[in-house]
Amino acid sequence: xxxxxxxxRKNIFIKKxxxxxxxxxxxxxxxxxxxxxxxxxxxxxxGTVITGYTGTELVMARTGEYFMxxxxxxxxxxxxxxxxxGFFILLLVSHKIAGPLxxxxxxxxxxxxxxxxxxxxxxxDDQMGLLAERLNGFNSLMDASIAKMQDxxxxxxxxxxxxxxxxxxxxxxxxxxxxxALHKARDLKTSAxxxxxxxxxxR
Length: 203
Fold this sequence. Notes:
The chain is mainly alpha-helical. It has a two-stranded antiparallel sheet with strand order 1-2. A hairpin with a 2-residue loop joins β1 and β2. Helix content is about 75%, strand content about 5%.
């Protein structure tokens, strides 16, 4: 229950620039589509005439000119209604994308500071759940690898300290400690060799 409250987003504008641009582009697409329909209608009806009543007066006019004002009003009404509904729907849809992106940015900032215990926690209805799982797996692998390297370094340090204290007293013990230190150094080298770096690729 506490976790759900922790990740509940009260502000629908998580990434204002992304969400606004996303919605505006959709609105522009609706306007272009309406203009294209009106243009196509006028093109198909070019050269035709129609008779009809305006009030009690019988009039004859070109079909396009007769219907165009009504079509423009109808298109305007459709644009306003569709754009309004579409804007809010897209705002909600983009929220499902912008929210996880925002959390990824914050989580990667923590990882970049060296906190390998940090995990990506997304709400159950968020998108990019698979990406979060992969990144969590990467962090877990890094966490375990670096932890082992830290343990090897600590053990190597302790061995070298003991070796320094017994070097002039017990040659047999000193030799044993040297072997132990070499073994731990090889373990440390193996752990570090798991990671591909620019230095290792150049070898």
